[in-house]
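Ticket reopened. Same input as before:
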Amino acid sequence: SASQAKLKDFFKPK
Amino acid sequence: MFEARLGSTTLLKKIVDALREILSQSTLDCSDSGIQLQAMDNSHVSLVSMLLQNDCFEKYRCDRNISLGLDLKSLSKVLKCASGDDAVTISAPDKADKVQLSFESAGKERTADYELRLLNLDQEHLGIPETDYSCVVIMPAIEFARICRDMTSFSESVVIACSKDGIKFSASGEMGSANIKLSQTSKGDVDLTVEEPVTLSFAGRYLSTFTRATPLSEKVKIGMAADVPLLVEYPIEDYGYIRYYLAPKVDD
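Engineering reply: fixed in the latest deploy. New output:
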């Protein structure tokens, strides 16, 4: 099954 | 002093409608070059990035950078008080705790002023890297909205598979399954640029939320690459854009 990734897994805080 | 005048309130109404289902409150970052917004939804799965360049406005003045924290529900209530063809001026002094919206009817015989209290929002900004998307699809915005609506009635997850043959949307649930494929046409209403095929899975309810921006643009641009968030971009005439990013679903 698939789980929902978060945006912070891809984009870093500025 | 910040002051920005739009010739028609309709554009502002469309922008707020495109934002308010995904964000309840947000900060407009105003600078000399225009107005920007970047915010994530509460669950940090999707992100909205908006740009309105200063040439979008009939009049634009921003003496120093100013952040206007707004409750979008309240802003929407104010916009409901205006006609679409009213001109709207958004203004705030430096170090403001309120923003003023002034509407002027097309014949200039009626003016209405509203003040909205500003919010001090602590919003986190993310750095969005320049991405070379392996697949870029441009399609009619109405078609994308229709597909998202149809898919979400089948399943919570939507699989988007893009290859040189076309872009395919699939959903499978208890009720059954749905598959919609769009191919590039000679009419040019669907345009595919594919370097490498990509298949990713996304939460359909977010995709549907993004389609609130459909009235802003005839076309929508979709960017996909392996293991990066989906890009869904609606241009705002020649003056800016609303971009939505959505983190994919990943295999456990």
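The mean pLDDT of chain A is 91. DSSP finds no helices and two strands in chain A. Please confirm and we'll close it.
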